[in-house]
Design goal:
Helices cover about 75% and strands about 0% of the residues. With about 100 residues, the chain is an all-alpha fold.
Length: about 100
């Protein structure tokens, strides 16, 4: 059985497959030419990051209080590492390139 963070990533991806595949291609293109793909990358990336934040909340939201807060932070880090492995430029969503 996959770790919980990976299962959430897989479920999130499967439920949003078309959008996520489009963002994956944009992510690759953006890595090659940031200026050319910036507008479309940010538009699609905004939708993707909203979905990611929602799933992040589902994964970690109920753990953030009390003694599970440290575990929640580590789980969150693993979830985002999984996302960044697939979308290496996700942290660039919304960044203006001049």
């Amino acid at each position: 059985m996959a770790p919980k963070f990976r299962q959430y990533f897989n479920d999130m991806f499967e439920q949003n497959k078309n959008l996520f595949l489009r963002f994956k291609l944009l992510n690759d293109d953006f890595g090659k030419d940031r200026k050319k793909y910036q507008v479309e990358f940010n538009e699609v990336g905004k939708q993707v990051t909203e979905i990611i934040r929602d799933w992040e909340s589902k994964l970690c939201g109920h753990m953030e209080k009390g003694d599970k807060a440290v575990f929640s932070a580590k789980l969150n880090d693993k979830f985002w590492a999984e996302i960044r492995a697939y979308f290496p430029y996700v942290d660039w969503v919304g960044v203006k390139i001049s």
